[in-house]
Specification:
Elements: E1 12-13, E2 18-19, E3 33-37, E4 52-56, H1 66-79, E5 86-90, E6 97-102, E7 110-114, H2 115-122, H3 136-147, H4 156-170, E8 181-187, E9 190-195, H5 211-214, H6 219-228, H7 246-256, H8 261-267, H9 272-279, H10 293-313
Parallel strand pairs: 1-5
Antiparallel strand pairs: 2-3, 3-4, 4-6, 5-6, 7-8, 8-9
Helix pairs in contact: 1-9, 4-7, 4-10
Bound molecules: adenosine-5'-triphosphate (ATP) and magnesium ion (MG).
Magnesium ion binds next to loops.
Length: 315
């Protein structure tokens, strides 16, 4: 069930790697990023030779945010949910630290379409900037349309429950319509598609809270914070109040799609100690912006609390 994570032994310096001229500096999104190409013989086996990776920096005001992408990858592995491998990296020439994230589809043979492109066609007034209409009812119409002629090979209900489970555990508030999508590929003579791995996971894990401000948080503070967490997607636009709390949304989806419950429960078959074991090596990586003990302790508190809540609501 669990996926063995790719564990780096040291940080990666991308200063001498090629920057992908085709992609250059990514204009899209809130965080600065380059596409870089690994050398033909990378420093460690966890890196695929001559492959494109995203070098994705933190938002300026949250310098250690990039760690969230790396931690989210490890949490995805614990759950057995596919998240693009993410590593801690820096550029010794520019001085920037970033998450180094493996490209999640094959150039040339596959193409990626952001869900927002489809949703805008289904709902011409779809607010692409904020995605306020992003909801699972409309998403399921899209999923059913893609399933026609068996072209969608993913079990979309399970995929969504997995996404909601993962996002609830890490407290991700940013799974908007362009942070998931569909990968098209050819199989035999026909076009098929699958849902993307869960990428862009850095708006999570309490990254926007500064260690000096959360140092004295009580358990009640952690609980309040976790229960205030909202997913970007709503259950539907017709229910009021809208359902988009991380926990209630997951519960709602599992109730609507009961066939997803068993796997969701199995995914949670790990302990607090397993979480510590899956993440602790990151604190030993020597980067200009390290994963500091206080940040790590806060992230663990959040993960432990959310894990306990999710386990209880899936019982
Ligand atoms: N690992 C990856 N492989 C291929 N494409 C990717 C990968 N990660 C991101 N992308 C593409 O790059 C775009 C921007 O990346 P990402 O969503 O991670 O950045 P962002 O700045 O955080 O965006 P946002 O505004 O959603 O927060 C994505 O919408 C996706 O199309
Ligand atoms: Mg994004």
């Amino acid at each position: 069930m669990r996926i063995s994570p790719l564990i780096q032994q040291a940080n990666f310096d991308v200063a001498d790697w090629d920057v992908d001229a085709e992609f250059g500096v990514f204009p899209q999104g809130a965080r600065a990023k380059d596409a870089v190409i690994t050398p033909p013989s990378p420093a460690e086996v966890v890196l695929v030779p001559s492959k494109r990776y995203l070098f994705k920096r933190s938002e300026k005001r949250y310098p250690d945010q990039f760690w969230g992408e790396v931690i989210a990858y490890r949490v995805g592995c614990l759950l057995g949910i596919t998240v693009p491998p993410a590593f801690a990296a820096y550029n010794s020439r520019s001085g920037y630290c970033a998450a180094l994230i493996e490209w999640f589809y094959s150039d040339g043979t596959e193409s990626f379409v952001m869900a927002g492109d489809f949703l805008q066609k289904i709902q011409p007034d779809f607010d692409r900037k904020r995605g306020i209409q992003h909801n699972l009812y409309t998403n399921s119409i899209l999923m059913k349309a893609l399933s026609q002629n068996s072209s969608l090979v993913s079990d979309w209900r399970q995929w969504w429950v997995d996404a909601l489970l993962f996002d609830a555990l890490i407290g991700n508030t940013d799974r908007h319509q362009d942070n998931w999508g569909v990968i098209f590929f050819l199989e035999g003579t026909g076009a098929k598609c699958r849902l993307s791995p869960l990428f862009d996971n850095g708006t999570s894990l309490g990254h926007e809270r500064f260690p000096q401000n959360i140092r004295n948080w009580s358990n009640a503070d952690i609980e309040r914070y976790a229960h205030n967490g909202k997913h970007h997607v709503k259950w539907s636009l017709s229910e009021h109040p809208l359902i988009n709390g991380h926990f209630e949304l997951l519960q709602r989806a599992v109730a609507a799609w009961p066939g997803t419950r068993e796997l969701a429960r199995e995914r949670l078959d790990f302990t607090q100690q397993d979480i510590i074991d899956a993440l602790s090596d990151l604190c030993r990586l020597n980067l200009p912006v390290p994963l500091l003990p206080e940040r790590f302790a806060f992230i663990l508190r959040l993960l432990f609390y959310r894990l306990q809540i999710i386990k209880s609501l899936l019982q």
